[in-house]
Amino acid sequence: MGLAQMIVAWVQAPCNIPGTSECASNARQLLIRWINAAFRLMWLESRSDLSTDEIGEDMLLSGLLTEQEWDHIVALPSRCTHIYQWINNVLHGLYLKGYLSSYLLGRMNTQVDGMRGANVWGLPSLPFPYTMIITHMVKAHLLLLSFSYGA
Hints:
mainly alpha; 0% strand; elongated
């Protein structure tokens, strides 16, 4: 909710430039739609009773993603993460065009990072084979230490 409030309050048209208020409005609507899409997608993906096709149908019928956007992320392992990256890309573009200050961009990126962190909470950030090898190496080392020191 914090990021949505920031977008509505802080994404503003640069002063005295014709046509920028409509661009700011379109950007706000796009960003809010993607925030809602990421949240809904995260919830849908947590349900084990839904297939990828059913999730896609829900996202398209709700209007939260376009068919082109869904087609872009459907085969990816972490779809929400890509939506968060889209949000960051748009925010950076708004900053470059004068719709946001660097301070506000930083605050908003912190919010997006928090949302991204919620998406991957509980998931391993390292590949499974790597974590298993390290786990077995640590256990073997502890076992060898206990034999070595007679515990």
